Amino acid sequence: MNRKTRITLDKDFTIGKIDDKIFSSFVELLGRCVYGGIYEPGHPMADEKGFRLDVLKFTKDLNLTLNRFPGGNFVSSYRWEDGVGPKSKRPKRPELAWQCIEPNQFGTNEMVEWSKLNGSGIIMTVNLGTRGIEQALDLLEYCNFPEGSYYSDLRISHGYKEPHNIKYWCLSNEVDGVWQVGQKTGTEYGRLARETSKAMKLLDNTISTILAGSSSPSQATFPAFDADALDEAYDFVDYLSIHQYLSNRENDTRNYVAKTLSTEAYLKSAIATCDFIKAKHRSKKTMMISFDEFNTWDATMAEDRFKNRWQFAPSLLEQVYNMEDAVVLGSMLIVILKHADRVGIACLSELVNSIAHIRTETGGGCWVLPPYYTYLLFSKYGRGISLLPVIDSPKYDSVQYTDVPFVDAAATIDEGNCLSIFAINRDVDNSIPVEVLLRGFGQYRVKEHIVLESENPKDTNTKENPNNVVPHSNGNAFMDGDVVYAELPRLSWNVIRLEKMK
Ligand code: AHR
């Protein structure tokens, strides 16, 4: 078998401008994401407000544009009013989604303050599970109305003179799911979302709203739920959200790394669903996708919430991510870059501890797992214009998938004309030689070939050994004329950075 992969890039063949909002994440009031994660008053590394500066260092480096807050499933029985005002007066409540006790010590204003420190904005999610249009309007008024109304003056009385000016609003979360408090059909939800979005935009016409689409491509109701909801709300919302988590539950790495074929198919179906409704409504608007939860994760872990109910900040959903997860995440990011013309928001789910690559000990240290570096490199170098790669890779069959390309890649060119090629090698046993033909770019040279790889797909980092799996710059990419030659190590995530010669 010819094992070589050939990739062609042409300066004039582009997918589109990459929206900075695809570099976003998700902070849910879940487990130890917030409490014992980004916020832990009294911790030796916490500032006077309780924000952990050791965690902040890792989150800041990711250069995130937005963080979705406060859920997730959490939002569907959340009363936002519980989380504002004097902390001593905030109620503790049993929280239904994660079966915890929510002390409400970290709410809207704490999220705004932490976001400022982190250099990111917020996607606020409103509760259309137990609540409705009125509470969504109240929260918007509290956040964005300048002054002189009940809720804006309440915000000012809480010490926030300037409005928070939150621009992106999710209209609830995973309403298609049987686990959701307030599950609805697509039509029921679409109708409520449409009216909520309409009212919210009457109060603040600068906001964008996100319709909650299917929670997974494996939902039996996908894509009918999305089509029904869009049919009601198409002209009133700006994005359709989709979610996906991939896992190696079967412990079959070859098949696991192929699962991103389903990500590509999911995204294409979601886009097709939007375009079907666009055509049906004779609409001029093209709906953008908000891929506002994606990651690798074995979602059956969610059942753990029933084991020790009504705890404060228990360890929940703390999957230990490894090298193979780092490659699968890279593959998901490649799919997103290849659809940069339609994905306007993408949130890595989540940021700290729960389903996350940044890990802490409550009262102790902080370290990062291998996929952290996959995302860090993507965020650092994946900006600008997404180029259209034509890829000819050898293929294999896995248990669930046929014709799986061993190599997948995306490429970007930034404002400074730096070219970045992001590539995965799915082959668990062998490295693969790659040739990248550059057409029409002028003269370039290899600046760096960064590789994330490890001996064993299950290798990871721990508190004791935090640098076991870290990227190195010893990749062997070189250029001869217009062609980049490189060997992609087995099961690896690669970033080949090219700079223009003067
Ligand atoms: O990220 C954990 C949960 O997964 C979110 O709360 C929910 O939206 C999804 O099912």
Tag the structure with descriptive keywords.
alpha/beta, 6-stranded antiparallel β-sheet, 502 residues, Immunoglobulin-like, binds alpha-L-arabinofuranose, 2 domains, 24% helix, TIM Barrel, single chain, 8-stranded parallel barrel
Structural overview:
This protein folds into two domains: 5-11 and 387-500, Immunoglobulin-like (Sandwich), CATH 2.60.40.1180; 19-371, TIM Barrel (Alpha-Beta Barrel). Helix 3 packs parallel to helix 5, helix 6 runs parallel beside helix 8 and helix 9 (323-338) packs parallel to helix 10. It is 24% helix and 25% strand. The chain has 502 residues and is α/β, with parallel strands linked by helices. The protein has ten helices and 25 strands. It is globular and about 65 Å long. The strands form six sheets. Strands 3-4-7-8-9-10-11-12 form an eight-stranded parallel barrel, surrounded by six helices. Strands 2-15-19-20-25-22 form a six-stranded antiparallel sheet, with helices on one face. It has a five-stranded mixed sheet with strand order 16-1-21-24-23, with no helix packed on it.
